[in-house]
């Protein structure tokens, strides 16, 4: 079973993503604490990480940079959930190694499709 | 012999034993055997044969018995003889050895044959013999010593009879052994020695060993001083007699020297002491004994001189003896000692070393010279000297400069220093002579000067001194009746001296000195104070005189300077200004002021040759343009113009040549100066005096002529420019009216003109910038880019192109402005490019609005997207039946609350927009702040508890009756409190205070939260501004903007104070409005 780690400070988003992915048979680990996100990811070794960009203390972008800099974790694909809709923001995200960029508000259905597609092609299976 | 005797004794012993023991024993045995035969016979009669046989056997037994006994004894004898041989030999040896010892052969030694008793005895004998041998050797040695000794020795018995002498005795005293032995000891000495010896022997009888010094009478050389050392021996004494002639002679000579030294010491009239290394006084002289009233020899020097039990240097005092012991060289010092009755005495202490042959200091000789009187004298001289030095330095200070401020301040310091006091000051009488004002002070607190800086004459001590002219000098004012009412009484001041400063004719002031400890002022010091006061009086008057002179000089200098300045001003004004009327009237005023005139006018020739008034210092009577003197009328002006030279009329009334205009009829004198340029006579100006005025000096004439020529040039130029000015004025007005900056430059890119808007943008003034290169008015580093662009534009324009460039520049106030500038060529009549006109438009306001809009869109869209995510995503999931039942319900609740949040944001945005454009009209209703705080507490309770915030809210003072918009104010407070909660950590404090302050209500919300960065602080309250904390929290950045708008709606304002990490206080002040 594939495993996805979701980090977002909004509990309802975590709830939504978790419910949607679990229903599709994907194991989901969620956390609101951006500070401990990297530790969590290192421990869980997920197939995919979904990050919120704007979080208090440590932003999703920073987490993304840390993950990409770590040889053990740099292979894990990263989806960035964000309310930032500007083009230049997207560019920054891609530069930092974000695989997919999902703008809020998003459809959980579409998100699930994107996750499945990512796991089917690039994940561990 | 010994053996023979012993053998004999042994034989005897055997015979005796035989006789006494063996014979009786044999006889008894024989008798018993006879008896036994008889008994047997009586019992049973024996046959004779038997009887004979028995008797025979008894006899035989008897014989055998005797024989056996004899044999036994014999055998014993032989054995005894054998063993006695072993016994006898050692005994014999011992005997011989003892005999040898007796004969003086001490080297005898016994052989030890066995470890028995004899062996033991032999060993003991050997030891004894060795001992005796050793003793004998020692005795011999001793005897040899005694005989070899160079010192005479005699042995006397208890009856003092000489029993032995050694050869040295004979050598020294000449008596032979025979002569000496048997004589009484007293026979060898003089009578005195005999007596002394008898006495000593008697006294020291018990002593085992003693030494006496005696005088012996030698056989040959007469009296010989000797020292006898005697030791007790058995039955008498052995005495060593030492020839003591050399020592005695030395001692005698030493004694003589000692006596001599003592005599020398005694002849010195100063007390003299010899001190040993233990600091004990060994000897003193008569003077010392007299000084102390006793002989202090044997006492410690520190006890004698300082009454101390321990050495002085241990207490850190200077000890002359120690210095000499340490250094080995002489040491002089003046010591202060206390005499009886507590009087102080000074002694010059001279100490020098007494060294032994090795150079070590054995003793110190110290003598003290009483220099008390000299010291007193010296002290007096020193005091006098100090007085003179002080007076001298003060007089030097006083004469150094004539500037009273400088001098008196220094003098005051010097006096305080010379007298060793804590402070002082000077009071000077004011001009009215009523008050004393403190002008110079030293060592005094500002409070003191403030409180006692002004004293009425006659009041307090300085006032009384100034009034009476006699000083008040007190050692301790706390005990002085004169100071009973003084303000100084309780200030801690003790020593006080207040001395009047008198001038030649009048009292000038006083000076005073004070100290915080009591101090006697000696008569000499009082004298000094008086002298100083006299000097100060003179100096002060001199300074005053000098100052008056200086003022006079300054006044003249200033006037001259003013004149020149005025002239300069005038010429520059004339050169630059185009408003001629203004210039001319200034010019006249200047002339009038400079010449102290009462009235001045300028008359110019009209086209018809009339002299008309151009301007006058007082235009109330005549209007400019009025004809004063018609053509041909004789007037001073006419006259001086014709003569082309100044004309002074000392008495106008007496002057018959001229017809004066009635306007100047009241003046007594006048001075007219022609104004002309080249051949052209322009007119003349005249200054009038009410008083008689003699001929003006060359200086004045020169000044007037200068003014006149300046005027002439300006008037001419004025006329020439007049037309241009009119034309130019119009263009100028247009230019100034434009909001864009317009700058015209010539072909060299130097500024020709600039308008007000250009002035505002560049910060440069047009008047000062004309002629400067255009780049010079944008010369800040920040504008490097702008200058480059500008030069490009100018370059293009000078080639005939029109260039438009958009860039930014930093204005004079330091604001960065977005600008667009346009450079266009200026053509002259002939179509040549004569310059460039630069038009700069400030786009900042527009750009700001743009940026704000973008910011708003970004921020709002971002903030709106989060709740939209819940609404869109969750609704979709519920519809897709991804969630059911309670979970679906939870989803819908979230959708609802996020939709509400979105709605609030929308209304916030609308609120602030409405308030900003002034569409909001606040309600006018009674506001109950207490009720408002209660409602807010209830509404925010969950947030407060969630963060465990210590929340307190209080209304201070009168707030009833306040009128305003309740819901807006509540919204404002809610925003403020929510912010405080939002930007704080767990457990922080939030304190809300509503206070009545005069005519205002102050609503303050203070938290102990994160605080705001200094950089962010200036932007907080601007719309959509989130600052550094925006990354950690959510919000629209509108809360505080709304608060600010609500405060404005109520006619008030909002202030934010914050320190990063130290919390924030936001206070809204609203004017108290009542219905």
Provide an overview of this structure.
The complex is a heterodimer of chains A (125) and B (1075). Chain A contains five helices and five strands, in the order βαβαβαβαβα. Chain A has 125 residues and is α/β, with parallel strands linked by helices. Chain A has a five-stranded parallel sheet, sandwiched between helices. In chain A, strand 3 (48-52), helix 3 and strand 4 form a beta-alpha-beta unit. Chain A is globular, with a radius of gyration of 13 Å. The model of chain A is unreliable at 121-125 (pLDDT under 50). Chain B has 1075 residues and is of the alpha+beta class. Chain B has 27 helices and 34 strands. In chain B, the strands form seven sheets. In chain B, strands 13-12-11-16-15-14 form a six-stranded antiparallel sheet, sandwiched between helices. A six-stranded antiparallel sheet of chain B has the order 19-18-17-22-21-20. In chain B, strand 9 (344-355) and strand 10 form a beta hairpin. Chain B starts with a helix and ends with a strand. The chains are: A alpha/beta (125), B alpha+beta (1075).
Feature tags:
heterodimer, A: alpha/beta, five-stranded parallel β-sheet, 5 strands, 19% strand, B: alpha+beta, six-stranded antiparallel β-sheet
Blueprint of the fold:
The complex is a heterodimer of chains A (125) and B (1075).
Chain A: E1 3-7, H1 11-23, E2 27-31, H2 37-44, E3 48-52, H3 60-69, E4 78-82, H4 87-95, E5 100-103, H5 108-121
Parallel strand pairs in A: 1-2, 1-3, 3-4, 4-5
Chain B: H1 2-43, H2 48-102, H3 117-148, E1 153-157, E2 162-165, H4 167-173, H5 177-180, H6 191-203, E3 209-218, E4 222-233, E5 236-243, H7 245-267, E6 272-276, E7 281-284, H8 286-292, H9 301-306, H10 320-327, E8 331-338, E9 344-355, E10 361-370, H11 372-400, H12 404-418, E11 423-429, E12 435-442, H13 446-452, E13 454-456, H14 460-468, E14 472-474, E15 495-502, E16 507-515, H15 523-576, H16 580-594, E17 599-605, E18 611-616, E19 627-629, H17 636-643, E20 647-649, E21 669-677, E22 680-689, H18 698-737, E23 741-746, E24 751-754, H19 756-762, H20 766-769, H21 784-798, E25 803-810, E26 816-827, E27 833-842, H22 844-879, H23 885-916, E28 925-926, H24 929-946, E29 950-956, E30 963-964, H25 966-982, E31 989-997, E32 1000-1007, H26 1014-1017, H27 1039-1049, E33 1053-1058, E34 1064-1071
Parallel strand pairs in B: 29-31
Antiparallel strand pairs in B: 1-2, 1-5, 3-4, 4-5, 6-7, 6-10, 8-9, 9-10, 11-12, 11-16, 12-13, 14-15, 15-16, 17-18, 17-22, 18-19, 20-21, 21-22, 23-24, 23-27, 25-26, 26-27, 28-30, 31-32, 32-34, 33-34
Helix pairs in contact in B: 1-2, 2-3, 11-12, 11-15, 15-16, 15-18, 16-18, 22-23, 23-27, 24-25, 25-27
